[in-house]
Each structure stands twice: as C-alpha cells, then as structure tokens.
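U., I forgot to send this yesterday:
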Amino acid sequence: MSGGLDSSVCLAFARREGYTCCALSFDYGQRHKSELEAAARVAGHFGVERHIVARIGLNAFGGSALTADIAIPKARSLEEMAHGIPVTYVPARNTIFLSFALAWAEVLESSDIFIGVNALDYSGYPDCRPEFIEAFERMANLATKAAVEGRTRLQIHTPLIRLTKAQIVALGRELGVPFGQTSSCYDPGPDGRACGQCDACLLRRKGFEEAGIEDR
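Result:
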C-alpha cells in the first residue's frame, strides 16, 4: 500500500470482500516519501490489523526518476504518456514488492495478496500488466513451502487492473475512501502538497474530472 489513490481503493475493496487486512508499504529510497505518511493515514482510517513499512533502499541502484537525480516529467500530454516506459519506472519494483508480500503472506498463512496495479493508466509500466501478475502467481505457487505442501494456493488479486481512473475514483467513493488523506504525487513539496503537473497528478485529476467528483 503506497498511500495513493489506487492502493487505497484496493484496500477498501478487500475489506468489503470480507478480508482481514494487513498492509505492506515500502520505504525504498523514493523521493516522494510523503506517500508513507498517507499510507499510515489510510491504514489507520480502515483499521488494518497490522501495517508494516519495509525498508529496502532501491535508491542504491538508481535508474529511475523516483530513486535518482533524474528530473520528474511535468505537464506531459496524455498522448505522450501513452507511448513508451517513462523515467518514473523503478526497475523491477513490483517484482520486488510482490516478493516481500509473498514472504509475509506465507508467514501469516494467508492465501491472498491484493495489489492496486492498473493497466489502463497510460503509464506503460511492464510490471502492472495482467500477464506479469499471472506469471508471478504461477511462480509463487512453485516457490513457497505452503503451496508445495498443498496447504494453500496463493492468489494475487488485482481488482483495479482493467478499470479506468474515473472508474477507480467512482469505486473509491462507493467504498468510502478518504481521498483527502491519499497522496499520488511523484514530486510533492516539503509540506506534502501535490505538484499538480507530474504524470500521476495529471492522471488523477483526469480521473476525478471524468467521474464528476471533487478531489479533496
């Protein structure tokens, strides 16, 4: 759970489905650490059973505008966002995140991992695509003691993967997500206020406008 719009809606969805939820966030050396404060707020709002922040330091590798001294793209058009993989892609990030989630799920004896990836965000991130999730799920059931011994079959749930941002916003309102406590910005100010011009901010704005809902 990053504390952004998608992960917050994903948490709310899992709760509605009747799951007891534990939330996993990552301090991976990202420049937008205010998202961790948002994650804590949202986790508290929904009363998760436990919230862990794993510190893994992907900034040691760099290679991304989120973890290295590379400029965050600003004021891009939707057409520009729709082509190629942006510099905000963090190498192997969701593979690493899901591996940590898999380890914790096995300790918790849980068969279910929820992740708020979305394939319709104009982002081009390869680790948000359905074929990646399906491949990771197959691997997870080959790689864990619980699955090999037949005690569980792990499932990765991606309830938002084929939704537009407007549909995610509408679902969030239906589920009671506190939008004002979330943070989506890649380049927030020192006070955590969104820049309003990065890809994440622009896509979020588009989603709220198309859903006809005010973003607080």
